[in-house]
Design brief:
Number of strands: 34
Distance between the termini: 65 Å
Pfam family, one: AAA_12
GO molecular function, one term: 4 iron, 4 sulfur cluster binding
Subcellular location: Nucleus
Shape: globular
Number of helices: 41
Radius of gyration: 35 Å
Family: Belongs to the DNA2/NAM7 helicase family.
Helix content: 25-40%
Enzyme class: hydrolase
């Protein structure tokens, strides 16, 4: 089927929209022709000619001779008979690679007379001694042709002459006549410069304080003009906008911004599914160079089986999917026969709607560089994921009956975009592809004058040449979008006037009704922008989508959307460090591993077959050993999101997660292959020399989850949204319950209920009945150890026995898996959904990765729908909100608290606990629970940690204990010491800096000695848990105890639902300033830590430092009153040499910066002593915010 070529009215309409308001004088009357360049034996950059981008037409009356002779200084005058266009070869000692010879195409005869007023005689006569005087009738300006030459070789791609990019901060903005004049400071040197915006750039929204990139060269006076014809300006370059979003901007600026704010997983259409599958099939064919029907059919089947979940969503069978994909990919073999070759074939037509009428082109794709390559460009403020990057050979020819001419071959690295829908004019596709040419030029270091669009249904390829006018318009649209997004990023700050952070609606009824973002657009228009509209073309659809919303609904959405945005800013504030800071600078802050190489000896394990990100596994080590350095130092931990880059040229080559972290190695799972050979070749092109590949591994702040959360919020308010939850959560409708007595009678006939509820106390039984009688929801408020995990497990078993299904969810993987580990013996199906790398090993058997790969939709449905229990983490904001303004605005308020305060009758309290002995329970009772917590039995109340062996009893050898008086370690091990605070002030045990994090080496050593003493006394490893609120301390402890595989070392956040016979807590902070930061002021975390212990609780810290805040001073007074305080004598940490760890004291080689000296950590800035509320006994009473604390521990 012939391709639908865009007609002139279509292109005129698109260009009018894209270039509206631009200087029309810079639009060329005819598209520029490909400039013929001399073949080069090297790829060194050349100074661009002043004539670049313009060439006289073949019938021009004004011949530019200097253009014709451009580059003559590089011609090989001593080798005229061979090829006079070849630059002089180097005679250096080094033997360069033999360059490909190029057969010169004849220059077209110019029949037009030359005007004397336009003719430059000097230019005309320059080099006349080499003209071919024997061939004057043919073309007297053409040098003598070689006698015999066969074949035509493509000119190699030119090395990309990267534009000068100067990063500046705007100090002042003023309008002078029709110019906008910016006074700026260069960010690196602090030099003052002037930027003058002319033509359409005058309308750019540039403000004081903005960061801008200036692309072009300043003159000797420090001034640069940015006009319609030269140079570019990028506003807010740290905001990377996708090329896909930007390509849609000419139609509607609002839609791509809304798509970034609200990311829905429900926008799933058959066309999208088929398109993705055909993309993948073609990418595999290109990579494997196999295009036969059998190969395509096999991989189509494989891809369909891998994407069965998508078929379930669109309700299509495997056979139907095969037929659909086969039909859409039927042209792939024809494509390969036509276009996959070393040189263009006669039928490999390359369509170019911008070419002149007498121009034709042929295409050969000779090499595949990459597929699904993710490229970030802080230079242009763009990013994109490219379908493919290819090496293309293009044959250009001009049809002229009067001139015999050969095709001119040229080789280019080009973006190759695959479009599987119905062939359309593709104006958005052209814009997207054109933007990709900028990204590839930066990534590969070669000139990319055009890109390729392949429409699978037309079986033709369209060439998209770069056009400054279109690029200028697209960059202008990008700057406008970035300005709106930046307004959102400054939302909540002090401002005189709240500006809209979304462009206005386009009010086009036809386009708006078909827009996939219509519901979201209308919701923001009503709730956030408060638009009143009764007369516009979209007034009716606006009313249809929003008339059901009450004022309270609008207020709720606006408030919570704003709070989400504030937290979103905090989550993404480090992203720009990847390109604004060197790897060493970022490593000093603990957010990067610098100078890394891939360990070729590493043997990766099996990659999960359902992972979307984890496609490849690599182990990184230091390129050269750094004494005392450890990967455990810093903010990066197992499970953290990371990016892999090569500084400074190749940013974000791959993205993924840390799988394993040791002092010497980092194992990562990433989404993209890291071929050192390919990367080295690319670096050689970029830098002009062959150098070693050194990677940097950066912590990445992924913020995409916030867009999902915002979508969950928006779904409540759509006209076809979740009405029931809107009533319950927003309107706070009273929850309904069935009669509990009737329910109780019915439950007696369910054997599973009778079995699981036997032995429960009255409070637990009441919680079971309330939950099972709820029509809407029930709230179980359980203090630590009161049996919430037991009740949840019993409820799941009972509900399944009643023939119903269960969704089990929590905000941490640890909490979900704790429940599943208690359902290991269940006789019903369980499906665990989530990142397999983060699932507890004991719960992985419930994941799809551990099951046979289904081959039909029915098999998959059986795996995902048949299990009555589905378990997963819920997408939520961390319960510990980081942004102060969001916290102040109420983002910390949990749904549990909101519902429990509105409807107390829905809450069931659990007060009898079965975990802690009475001493440990008293600690939390006095500080938090107002003596409401009770031991469930006498056995629990009197429990103690029994030591099977007497390691520290009797007379001790000097190698074991050097204590002069009584042994402090023996006191700790005593079975009568159930709660002990170990005061380290006399040692001393100061905290220390690791980058901008904090750790305490002495406390870590003490923890190790205490742990070893317990183990030598017969306590089992799985009876001991070690905790700290500080991630850096956790990493240090994990390092020195790495041989003790069964000892769990946890933060408070990861300990939910866990308990151990003995808990040892390192409080870390110890300094003369009394600075403890924010973590130790968070009683939710502290309380969770205390209440993990069953029989023995040991807390190690500095009494003097911790006493500086009111809340902790109450805790220390209680410890004093009960006689639970143990003050260590000086040097107590070295009195037991036999228990010392050889791994203690790992340090970071990084020097502390001034900023590091004043910052404890990202999450915990050092600050002056803050005024804190006075703590009264029974702090829970009258303080509803602490009700979440009660529910925080399990």
């Amino acid at each position: 089927m012939p391709q639908a070529i865009p007609n002139i009215p279509d292109e005129d309409a698109f260009m009018k929209n894209l270039l509206s308001g631009l200087d029309s004088t810079c639009q060329p009357e005819h598209p520029p022709k490909l400039k013929r360049t001399a073949s080069c034996s090297s790829i060194a950059p050349q100074t661009p000619s002043k004539h670049t981008g313009s060439r006289p037409g073949s019938h021009s009356n004004n011949l530019d001779i200097s253009m014709l002779l451009d580059g003559a200084e590089n011609w090989d005058w001593n080798d005229m008979e061979a090829d006079f266009l070849t630059p002089k070869k180097s005679n250096s000692g080094k033997t360069p690679m033999k360059p490909p010879s190029v057969k010169r195409s004849s220059v077209a005869r110019r029949s037009a007379s030359l005007s004397a007023t336009a003719l430059d005689v000097n230019a005309l006569l320059e080099g006349a001694e080499n003209w071919d005087w024997a061939d004057m009738e043919d073309d007297f300006i053409t040098p003598k042709k070689p006698k015999a030459k066969s074949g035509t070789v493509a000119m190699p791609a030119k090395r990309h002459a990267k534009e000068t990019c100067t990063r500046c901060v705007v100090d002042d903005v003023r309008v002078d006549r029709e110019l906008q004049v910016l006074s700026v400071r260069v960010q690196s040197s602090r030099d003052s410069r002037t930027v003058i915006l002319c033509d359409d750039w005058v309308d750019a929204d540039i403000r004081k304080g903005n960061t801008i990139n200036v692309l072009g060269d300043f003159d000797s006076f420090g001034i640069i003009k940015i006009t319609s014809k030269i140079n570019f300006l990028i506003n807010h370059p740290d905001i990377l906008i996708t090329a896909t979003a930007l390509s849609n901007a000419p139609q509607c600026r609002r839609k791509p911004l809304l798509s970034a704010l609200v990311r829905s997983s429900l926008d799933f259409t058959p066309a999208l599914v088929w398109g993705n599958m055909v993309h993948e099939v073609m990418q595999i064919c290109m990579a494997e160079q196999r295009w036969d029907d059998r190969f395509i059919e096999e991989h189509t089947k494989e891809i369909i089986n891998k994407k069965l979940a998508e078929l379930v969503k669109i309700n299509v069978s495997v056979d139907d999917a095969k037929r659909e994909v086969k039909a859409r990919s039927r042209g792939l073999r024809m494509f390969s026969e036509r276009y996959i070759a070393e040189t263009p074939k006669a039928d490999a037509v390359l369509t170019n709607t911008r070419a002149a009428a007498n121009q034709s082109s042929l295409l050969a794709i000779s090499q595949l560089h990459d597929v699904e390559e993710d490229i970030w460009s802080p230079t242009y403020g763009l990013k994109g994921k490219l379908d493919a990057t290819v090496q293309a050979v293009i044959a250009e020819s001009t049809i002229d009956k009067r001139v015999k001419s050969e095709s001119l071959l040229s080789t280019h690295t080009m973006p190759f975009e695959i479009k599987t829908g119905k062939t359309v004019a593709g104006m958005e596709h052209r814009a997207q592809t054109m933007l990709y040419t900028l990204l590839i030029a930066e990534r590969y270091g070669v000139d990319v004058p055009s890109g390729l669009l392949y429409y699978t249904q037309s079986e033709e390829v369209v060439r998209v040449p770069q056009s400054r006018n279109e690029l200028r318009a697209l960059i202008g649209a990008r700057n406008e979008m970035a300005s709106y997004m930046m307004r959102r990023n400054t939302h909540g700050k002090e401002k005189d006037l709240e500006e809209p952070f979304l462009p206005p609606t386009i009010d086009d009824e036809r386009m708006c009704k078909k827009c996939y973002a219509l519901d979201t657009c209308m919701l923001f228009r009503k709730a956030v922008e408060n638009v009143v509209d009764t007369s516009s073309p979209i007034a009716d659809v606006y009313d249809l989508k929003t008339s059901h919303l009450k004022p309270s609904h609008l207020t709720f959405f606006k408030q919570w959307e704003e709070l989400i945005s504030l937290e979103e800013q905090d989550a993404t504030r480090f992203r720009k460090e990847l390109w604004c800071m060197t790897a060493q600078e970022r490593e000093d802050k603990g957010r990067c591993f610098n100078s890394m190489v891939i360990d070729a000896s590493f043997q990766p394990g099996k990659v999960p077959n359902n992972g979307k990100i984890h496609q490849y596994t690599y182990c990184f080590v230091r390129a050269s050993a750094v004494r005392g350095a450890s990967f455990l130092n810093g903010h990066m931990s197992r499970g953290d999101a990371i990016t892999i880059s090569v500084e400074p040229d190749l940013l974000a080559l791959a993205r993924g997660f840390i799988l394993e972290l040791t002092p010497e190695t980092v194992v990562v799972g990433v989404d993209h292959e890291l071929s050192v050979d390919k990367i080295q070749t690319r670096l050689e092109m970029l830098r002009g020399a062959r150098i070693a590949v050194l990677f940097r591994v950066d912590k990445d702040e992924m913020s995409g989850g916030m867009a999902r959360i915002r979508d969950n919020l928006a779904q409540l308010f759509y006209v076809e949204g979740d009405v029931r939850r809107l009533e319950l959560v927003v309107d706070l409708r009273r929850p309904l319950f069935d009669n509990e007595e009737t329910i109780a009678d019915d439950l007696q006939h369910i054997p599973e209920y009778v079995r699981t509820s036997s032995g429960m106390n009255p409070g637990q039984l009441a919680a079971m009945k309330r939950a099972l009688s709820a029509r809407d929801y029930a709230l179980i408020l359980g203090m630590p150890g009161t049996g919430k995990t037991t009740i949840i497990t019993a409820l799941i078993r009972t509900i399944v026995a009643m023939g119903k299904t269960v969704l089990l969810t929590s905000y941490t993987h640890s909490a979900v898996d704790t429940i599943l580990l208690k359902l290991q013996d269940a006789d019903f199906g369980i499906l665990r959904i989530g990142n397999v790398d983060k699932v507890h090993p004991g719960a992985r058997r419930f994941t799809l990765a551990e099951r046979r790969l289904p081959t039909t939709v029915e098999e998959l449905e059986n795996q995902i729908i048949a299990p009555p229990v589905v378990a997963t983490t819920c997408l939520t904001i961390d319960q510990y909100v980081r942004n102060p303004a969001a916290r102040k605005g109420g983002l910390e308020t949990s749904l549990f608290r909101r519902l429990s305060e509105a409807h107390p009758h829905a809450v069931i309290d659990l007060t009898y606990q079965y975990r802690m002995n009475e001493d440990i329970m008293e600690l939390s009772n006095k500080l938090i629970y107002g003596d409401r917590l009770r031991c469930g039995s006498e056995e629990v109340a009197k429990s103690t940690l029994v030591l099977p062996k007497g390691c520290m009893t009797g007379t001790l050898d000097l190698g074991v204990c050097l204590c002069e008086d009584s042994c402090w370690l023996r006191h700790l091990l005593s079975e009568s010491s159930k709660v002990v605070f170990v005061d380290t002030d006399r040692l001393p045990a100061r905290d220390s800096r690791v980058g901008d994090l904090v750790q305490n080496d002495v406390e870590a050593n003490l923890v190790y000695q205490i742990t070893e003493a317990f183990l030598r006394s017969g306590v089992q490893e799985d009876q001991i848990g070690i905790m700290s609120l500080y991630r850096q301390q956790i990493k240090l402890l994990s390092h020195i105890l790495q041989d003790r595989k069964d000892i769990e070392i946890l933060t408070a956040d990861r300990s939910q639902g866990r308990d151990k016979d003995c808990i040892i807590i390192s409080m870390v902070r110890s300094n003369d300033q009394g600075q403890i930061g924010d973590l130790l002021k968070d009683w939710r975390r502290v309380n969770v830590s205390f209440t993990r212990a069953r029989s023995k609780l040991i807390i190690i810290g500095s009494r003097k430092t911790l006493n500086s805040t009111e809340l902790l001073s109450v805790f220390l007074r209680l410890m004093d009153e009960r006689g639970w305080m143990l003050t260590l004598p000086p040097n107590a940490d070295v009195k037991h040499p036999a228990l010392q760890s050889e791994r203690c004291g790992i340090r970071s080689p990084a020097k502390r910066s001034k900023e590091n000296e004043s910052v404890a950590s990202v999450n915990e800035p050092l600050s002056k002593k803050l005024k804190t509320p006075k703590v009264e006994e029974g702090i829970l009473k009258g303080r509803p915010i602490l009700q979440d604390v009660v529910n925080g521990g399990r």
